[in-house]
Amino acid sequence: MEHSIAVDIAFLLLAVLAVVAGWRVFRTDSMVRASFFLLVSFIAVGAIMILLAAEYLGVAMFFMMAVEMMVMALFMVMFMMNPAGLNPMMMVHQHRLSIVAGGVAFVILAAMALFSSFPADPLPAGLDPVHSLGEEMLGDSMLIFESAGIVLLATMIGVVVLSSHRGRYGAAEEGSMPPGLEPGGDPAGQPEDDESGGGHAHHHHH
Amino acid sequence: MTLVTLLLLAAALIGIGLYGALSQQSFVMLMMGLELILNGVMLAAVAFWAYSGAGAPEGQLLTIIVMAVMAIEMAMGFALVVAVFRGKQADTTEALSELKQ
Amino acid sequence: MELLTLVIILSLALGAGLLIQWLPQRHQPIPPYSQRAPFLGGGTPDTHAWNRYHIRYYPMTLLLIAFEMEMMFMYPWAVVFVEKGMMAVMEMGMFLAILSVGIVYAWREGVFRWQ
Amino acid sequence: MAVSWLRQLAARSRVPVFPVWGWHDDALLARLALSSQVELVDSPRHASVLLVIGEIPAALRDGLRRLHDQLPAPFAAVWLRGAPIVALGAPVQIARDDQLIETLVRTHRELMLGQRESAPRLLPDEPPNPWKGLGDDGHGGEGMMGGNPYGRPMAMNMQNDLRDGLTLDSLTFRLGPFFPLLPAGLCAEVTLQGDVIQSWETRHAALPQRLDPIFHAARQHPVSIADLELARARHHLVQLYRALHLAGLEHVAHQAVSLSQRLTSSSRLDGLRRQLMRSGIFRLAAMDGVQLDGELASHLGGPAARAAGLEVDLRTNDASYQSLGFRPQYRTAGTTRARWEQWLGEIKQSLQLARQAERDNLHTANTGAVETPRGPWADERPADGSALLDEVLPGLEWDEAMTLIASLDLRAVADAPREASA
Amino acid sequence: MIESLASLLMVTVVLVLGPYVVAVLDRLVATPTGAMAGDVWLGPLSRAAWLLTQQANATEAPDWQAWRLSPALYLALAAVGLAVVPWSPTLIATDLVTSVVLWGSVEALATVVIFLQGWSANAVLPLIGAYRYVALGLSYILISMFVLIGVALPAESLQWTQVVTAQESLWNVIRQPLGLPLFLVVGLGLTFWGPLNLADSTDLAGGTSAEVSGPSRLAWELARAVMLVAFSAIAATAFLGGWLGPWLPGPVWVLLKTLAVLALLLWLGHRLPRVAPERCVTLMWVVLLPLSFVDLIWAGVLALWA
């Protein structure tokens, strides 16, 4: 595959961006920032994919990861004490081991990249990546495509069961009874099944 | 931009991700580590597709599947965290291990 | 070339956005603390506003992630839709059916209501 | 050169004004809202002039000082009908109401052209709490949640028992006295859980409102029913203006307030009503959430009570009204929506009554008791209802709560009537 | 090369003039009687000048980088939107094979940027605005995708130029009658305009921009205006046949159609009340999303039948 020097420069910048942003994820106090650093890392990789002529995958990376990281940030905010990192902190365990493991993984993978030889078989000219992907999905890999749909449906249902407040199935129901706004108070703000909650007749709409 | 440089970048991302996944106590941060690893994997898949797969559509498909795995991992992970949180009021990985019993 | 143009446009806009903010302010001192207190109509907060916030629509966000993944399959599908004809229609039927089941189920469980 | 050119241009902009109402005055509000040279803003950050109207009670002056300091430079404070609070250099005071717009424009112009110094800050430049930095960038306090990073403690979970079974923090702050969406003077300590109000404690009641002199006159001697009803319609229209502004329907809000200024017995409400219905506001906004039950509503009286199904209206006892065939309108739901509909219905009814009464030149028969737009005034003036919020608001989402507050007239009636505006 | 430069110039001109046009049009739409006619032409400029004169506000411990970056990033996203608009068959800045999806990404990333704007101030009212907006942003994104896929079906491509070419016989606004209305809802959400202004709403005293003043506020408003223009241009491309039209050159047609969509958006913004945030999510998922399914099925059946 031929490409100009501009592509090389762009790749270099994007590669540095991807790695630095990826590193910053674990080195920032603000959890929200951490998720958006990860987003930056993904976007950089997506841009590299576009440079590699995988135009659909690269762009898909943008919108998929924008949404995923947004959700990630939301959950950060929900679950982390000090989500903005106003107090510096370091919530790590097995720190040394992890650094070593990360380093070793990099060295092994890098060595594999450097010392094994891969067949040079670039993209054929005139290939339309999006079209070929569509063909594949509706052709040979139909089964994968279909099962992915089913798995995602299962995920949807699983997610709803686990996280929904009003889930009908045991575990999720636990603790989902709104305990009221004051300790020991009546349940409050419950939309449907508690019309008289809180002593005065207010209820959420719907 | 060659296959080797791309793979080196992927390796770096995987390395950082592995560090994060192993070291972070918080479950949400741990997931970020996993995502970073998958980021590297996707990059490697696309790099192979572009440089030594002759544009076989399976390369792209693999990337999409990795992305799907990532989405499922995230959605289920968070749903699980919510469920655990309701009971345990904590989000560290230690709390998750209690769930197994 | 296209990408280069895109990068130029992107950096132009980004630069303009930053310059508009930076140029008029470069010699201004940071405002005093009395100005920096958050606006609450003359009231004061006890604490910082950043907190573990109750995002009451979170089940919806999880559903969205799974949903969006399906959408990712649909874009390439759109390109070959006409070519593949009936098969693509069946495919679409299946996808929309899955999504509809997902929505209906989630709706019944009250996912779209804020907790 | 470039700078002066920019400032010349800036001096021509509409004057962004953040109003603080010590004495509320519908006519002044209408004048400000209708002026094409003034823009009323909701946040002091968006204003260049702080307009203080009337005397601010001593208890609220701290709030005013804080607010004063929150305007970004260059800004000025303009005082109408009241003395500036102390420690101010070169305050702008307006003697007469009709100079209001003119003075606002001139002050803004002077500020922009650099002919007037930005007003000095009233409070010391120091963080609310002492803090000492820790950490790599010297930015935090101690421990994960301890200390006062940047001079404020971290938001913390004060109560274990929370709605969703998740441990989430609550935010406590004091809102008011001059939060634009609350009646002036109302201060409350609010605890938020996300965007849901967990608790609401009213700390300072809303400042009393001064009604149109005709409602005071009606207790002394018979007054023209036409004038009385027009004054009532005007009052409701201004209330509607606030609620519409909150709902984001600036266009209709503008219509409401302009109608209130040129209201005669031949005015029609139909155009406004049609626009409102067409906008679909009753379907899109959260208006059916909270029911104000009869007991709570009866404390407030007036349209709020009638919207909750209480058929109470002093006008029914008045022989002249009886001769007009007056029957009080009422709704049963007691929701925000019912109160909106009640307003619309009462404005329409008032216009109708005014038309009939004008024809026969009718005057009120009872003088002891008058039904003010705020509520019945027989032996006692309608009292403040701010405390009601403590009971109603907890559990509501912020938007819903603000919509609810805008649909209630909580202010007491002051003993003095409104001054005739010059 | 010449084409690239010309398209670059085109985008820059729209970037610069767009906000002014939005401001003027908004004033004209808001007061149809012409009550403030004198203010209409100079008003936007003098307001901008005032904002440049005003000091930028700070809060006690804001996330400085994110706070200053978010208006610039929002502007940059809007510019990317403009870059994928084809002004004529050849006059287009970025004619990516997947430019339709790129626009989808702009919509998704806008949510992140608007969230950051509210989050960074570290004040409660902007924070509520930010979280509310995310609920909206995560809801409209799916509708947008279905509508965009519907548009891509007859074109058999994810490229805006192809989408326009496919409309030569019939514009999509007629072929897919549900598409444009649904897409307009997305536009209102994307620019938090009018009924979907959950981010900067009145009940939060300005929401995400409650604590923003001076040049930063100007940048934010500029970015929002450019986003309105970019969205209108995309809507014109997707549904109104882009450069297609008799007598006039292509770019002029695109501009005219963009103005039409823009005026419609601004008008809607003034005529509709703000939707309650809690109701918004249900509305999007339970009403509008199924409608977008119908739109897609309709588009699919028609594409096969044609």
TrEMBL record, chain B:
Where would you find this protein in the cell?
A: Cell membrane; Membrane
EC no. given is: 7.1.1.-
What does it catalyze? a quinone + NADH + 5 H(+)(in) = a quinol + NAD(+) + 4 H(+)(out)
Q: How does it sit in the membrane?
A: Multi-pass membrane protein
Q: What is its main location?
A: membrane
Instruction: Spell out the GO cellular component terms annotated for this protein, sorted alphabetically and separated by semicolons.
Output: NADH dehydrogenase complex; plasma membrane
Q: Which GO terms describe its molecular function?
A: NADH dehydrogenase (quinone) (non-electrogenic) activity; quinone binding
Q: Which regions span the lipid bilayer?
A: 33-54, 61-85
User: Which range is the signal sequence, renumbered to this chain?
Assistant: none
- What keywords tag this UniProt record? Cell membrane, Membrane, NAD, Quinone, Translocase, Transmembrane, Transmembrane helix, Transport, Ubiquinone
GO BP, sorted A to Z: ATP synthesis coupled electron transport
Database matches in PANTHER family: NADH-UBIQUINONE OXIDOREDUCTASE CHAIN 4L, NADH-UBIQUINONE OXIDOREDUCTASE SUBUNIT ND4L
Q: Describe its function.
A: NDH-1 shuttles electrons from NADH, via FMN and iron-sulfur (Fe-S) centers, to quinones in the respiratory chain. The immediate electron acceptor for the enzyme in this species is believed to be ubiquinone. Couples the redox reaction to proton translocation (for every two electrons transferred, four hydrogen ions are translocated across the cytoplasmic membrane), and thus conserves the redox energy in a proton gradient.
Describe, as the record does, how this protein assembles with itself and its partners.
NDH-1 is composed of 14 different subunits. Subunits NuoA, H, J, K, L, M, N constitute the membrane sector of the complex.
| Family of this protein | Belongs to the complex I subunit 4L family.
Report the protein name in the record: NADH-quinone oxidoreductase subunit K
**The organism of origin for this protein:** Modicisalibacter xianhensis
Gene giving rise to this polypeptide: nuoK
Automatic annotation (TrEMBL), chain C:
**Catalytic class of the enzyme:** translocase
Q: Which reaction does it catalyse?
A: a quinone + NADH + 5 H(+)(in) = a quinol + NAD(+) + 4 H(+)(out)
GO cellular component annotations of the record: NADH dehydrogenase complex; plasma membrane
Please report the record's description of how this protein sits within the membrane.
Multi-pass membrane protein
Subcellular localization: Cell membrane; Membrane
Instruction: Give GO MF terms, alphabetically.
Output: NADH dehydrogenase (ubiquinone) activity; quinone binding
Q: Which UniProt keywords apply?
A: Membrane, NAD, Quinone, Transmembrane, Transmembrane helix, Transport
Just give the chief location class: membrane
Q: What does this protein do?
A: NDH-1 shuttles electrons from NADH, via FMN and iron-sulfur (Fe-S) centers, to quinones in the respiratory chain.
Q: Which family does it belong to?
A: Belongs to the complex I subunit 3 family.
Q: What is this protein called?
A: NADH-quinone oxidoreductase subunit
Which species does the entry assign this protein to? Modicisalibacter xianhensis
UniProtKB/TrEMBL annotation, chain D:
Q: Which SUPFAM superfamilies match?
A: HydB/Nqo4-like (SSF56762)
Q: Output the InterPro entries linked to this UniProt entry.
A: NADH_Q_OxRdtase_suD, NiFe-Hase_large
Gene3D superfamilies, per database record:
Cytochrome-c3 Hydrogenase, chain B (1.10.645.10)
The molecular function terms in GO held by this entry are:
NAD binding; oxidoreductase activity, acting on NAD(P)H; quinone binding
Instruction: Note down the stretches annotated as region Disordered.
Output: 120-140, 363-383
In terms of domain of life, where is this protein from? Bacteria
Annotated NADH-quinone oxidoreductase subunit D domain ranges read: 268-358
Pfam families for the chain: Complex1_49kDa (PF00346)
| Protein name (record) | Respiratory-chain NADH dehydrogenase, subunit
State the organism of origin: Modicisalibacter xianhensis
Lineage from the top down? Bacteria, Pseudomonadati, Pseudomonadota, Gammaproteobacteria, Oceanospirillales
UniProtKB/TrEMBL annotation, chain E:
- Any one of the GO CC terms: plasma membrane
The record's listing under InterPro entries reads: NADH_UbQ_OxRdtase_su1/FPO (IPR001694)
A single MF term (Gene Ontology): NADH dehydrogenase activity
Report the main location listed first in the record: membrane
The residues that cross the membrane are 6-25, 72-94, 100-121, 133-153, 173-193, 225-244, 250-268, 280-305
Membrane topology, from the record? Multi-pass membrane protein
Single Gene Ontology BP annotation: aerobic respiration
Query: Membrane: is it a keyword of this entry?
Result: yes
Q: Give the residue range of the signal peptide.
A: none
Ordered alphabetically, the record's keywords are: Membrane, NAD, Transmembrane, Transmembrane helix
Q: Does the keyword Cell membrane apply?
A: no
- The name under which this protein is listed is NADH dehydrogenase subunit H
